[in-house]
Amino acid sequence: HVRLVESGGGTVQPGGSLTLSCEASEFSYCLGWFRRLPGKEREAVAAIDSDGTTAYADYVKGRFTISRDNSKNTLTLRMNSLKLEDTGVYYCVADQRTRAGRMMPALQALALSDYWGQGIQVTVSS
To answer: Which residues pair with 24 in a beta bridge?
Structure first.
């Protein structure tokens, strides 16, 4: 029953950068970020397994980088080249099952998780 707390949100101009952090209460094999854009359903952003394997949604690939520190149970999302359409609430999410145990790709598994942070606002505005 992992608890997740996001931090680092804020407002930046288009083309700018922002780093989000997530502190987890305990170890999880899979961690990731989802987001909810205005008027849209929640969507995947990125995921990372405990061994460092990553997965990215196509619309952030090459711009966002996900990382984790297993010794601290922390998760980071570095967002570069931010666009107006990146504006929304970003959520940290965890799945404590192993890759073999969950039997599906990380982003799919995280979408079904019961363990989410409270969300943090990211606003890209000119």
So the answer is: 4
Q: Which of 60, 65, 109, 106 is nearest to 83 (CA)?
A: 60
Overall size of the chain counted in residues: 126
Kindly report, residue by residue over 100-119, the tens digit of the pLDDT.
888 889 999 999 999 999 99
Angle at 57 between CA 16 and CA 119, to 5 degrees: 65
Give the residue from 45, 51, 78, 54 showing the smallest Cα distance to 64: 78
Structure tokens at 85: 């359409």
44-63 pLDDT, tens per residue? 999 999 999 999 999 999 99
- State how far the alpha carbon of 95 is from the alpha carbons of 11, 38, 119, in Å: 29, 26, 17
Q: Confirm if 16 and 79 have CB atoms less than 8 A apart.
A: no
